[in-house]
Amino acid sequence: MTPSIRRKLESLAERHEEIGLLLGQPDVLADNTRFRELSREYAQLEPVVASLQERDQAEHELGDTRAMLDDPDLRDMARDDVERLEQRLVELDDELQILLLPKDPRDEANLFLEVRAGTGGDEAAIFAGDLFRMYTRYAERRRWHVEVLSENPGEHGGYKEVVARVEGKGAYSRLKFESGTHRVQRVPETESQGRIHTSAATVAILPEMDEIDDIEINPADLKTDTFRASGAGGQHVNKTDSAIRITHLPSGIVVECQDERSQHKNRARALSLLKARLLDEQRSKQAAAQAESRRLQVGSGDRSQRIRTYNFPQGRITDHRVNLTLYRLPEVLQGDLDELVDTLTRENQADELKALTAG
Predict the structure, then answer these.
(1) Contact yes or no for 58/92 (Cβ under 8 A)
(2) Is-contact 176 299, C-beta < 8 A?
(3) Sign of CA dihedral 45, 46, 49, 55
């Protein structure tokens, strides 16, 4: 462990102790907001302090055990303990460095999932449908709730565009690396010559955050249209102008919501999605300016970047950002995304640790 990392950890431990004292103060107990904020910070620092204490204890034990190597009667037993403690110290150092990484406040947020067909015509729409089904099945595995807000089906299946809200613990943290262009290589069902075609679809993952309430939108900048929803929902849906389309005139962003029967609820959902897109646009510009070198473009919303290829003839899937190739394409399309997600998470942590130690 470097001295700079050690100093940062000790300062966090001191802050944890300070907060513990503050939480017992009458003025803090009387202020619900401050008490809640301090309690949250105290809980976030708890794992850091616990791991640091365990590391210090392991280091102390290691020193005592090494001294036993000079005793012929205890040498063999001590040698095994030294090896075990040295390994544990390495593990604790890794844990502490990861705990030291700044937390993304969006990680626990729900999200908006947008999948759009790109180049490739009907085949691109079919592929967009495959991707959306892959994400919904992954959500089912994690017991998240998926709510389709709007959809524009393709003529031969799939979607030209589909937008959904995904609600569940840690949803954004698991899917935030999925934004980008996804490419597919396969023989379309409509291809009579058996030739492999390349098509694409874009995915956008937008966090649904409380802070979007801070984004002020001038009502004069909005153009709102109502229309009759299509698809499932019964006679009421098809006979009532309950669906909402909002156009943000300054940016040209258009959002729709036709899932709810209530026009009021659809308007609220659409406005929330619009704010999420505007926030994502702001973050994209900041991320592009501040983190051009980052391979994963985390949270940048950079959907022009080709991030992954799904090759059906060879049954493989390749993530180009981390040079990861898996020959498990059918399983991945059935929602088994954990290996991809975990690898991307580890690579992102490695990038952040590099920046942390350099700083």
Answers:
(1) yes
(2) yes
(3) negative
